[in-house]
Give the backbone structure.
Amino acid sequence: MTTESPTTCGAAVRSSDWLGRIVCGDNTEVLSGFPDACIDLVVTSPPYDDLRTYGGHSWNFEALAAQLVRVLKPGGVIVWVVADATVNGSETLTSMRQAIHFKDVCGLNVHDTMTYEKHNPPPTGSGRYYQAWEYMMVLSKGKPKAFNAILEPRRNVCGDKRTHRVKGFERDKNGNVQKKEYHIRENVPRRNVWSYLVNGGSSADDAMFAHAHPAIFPIALAKDHVASWSNPGDVVLDPFAGSGTTLKAAKELNRQWCGIEINPEYCAIAEARLSQDVLQLETCAMRPNVRFSDSPSGSGESTKTP
Ligand SMILES: C[S@@+](CC[C@H](N)C(=O)[O-])C[C@H]1O[C@@H](n2cnc3c(N)ncnc32)[C@H](O)[C@@H]1O
């Protein structure tokens, strides 16, 4: 792991010290050093309830939510991928409380409550159906400033092969009745339930990383959100970077990126994953009060049961 940094903790550093890097530390603490309104898009998945601690680490939802909203640009988007633990036979509904907090306390719009469907969910305990989906809460600071809809072929449930439909009838100047038709689009925006293969290495397109982290989410999921809610050159953040899936998606789609991850082992995994090209890894584990004071300038599978 590279630990070189031109700065010391508590001192102001340039955006080049966090752009294109994985900062190893607690996300709330690290973000407290970021300037206001420097992030275009957050795509992330926090640990779900106490299902896993990823090496005994904890996080503070309310403090993190406040920081995320502060660093988000107007029109920026947070994609919060989350599900609930089942405790004493009952789902915790933590995911819903978090969404309500983002809306009622932080003032974000709940732009779209999307669903991540697992095409091949792992078996669930007895007495209930297999758990096959998670929330993908799309939260925005005002109206999203970027939306690049992913198109897919129009579903034709009735086997209708027409390319035009009759909208109505009108008479021409000679009094003859003419059909008014409209063109039926072949491709339409995708629905807000997205389905991905999970497990068995299907989450990562780089096989050597598929099992490196216990809760990697599909690279395709990350890419689809990055493509939808940001434009090339925008800054994409994952404050629970894990194995670096969001960062890899951002990098491949020519976005700038920044990751924060508390577990040094996962920082190393993400580093290895991203350094298949070039990666500079910043570690703040020993420097908890690092501050980042300027604005960014450059451009830069579940498997999950978090
Ligand atoms: C669900 S995993 C994210 C996996 C990631 N989406 C991927 O595809 O690899 C959540 C991650 O958050 C990290 N984490 C937990 N508490 C944290 C904190 N306070 N600050 C930063 N990262 C934290 C865990 O170590 C874990 O890697």
Observations:
- Residues 94-105 form the longest helix (12 residues).
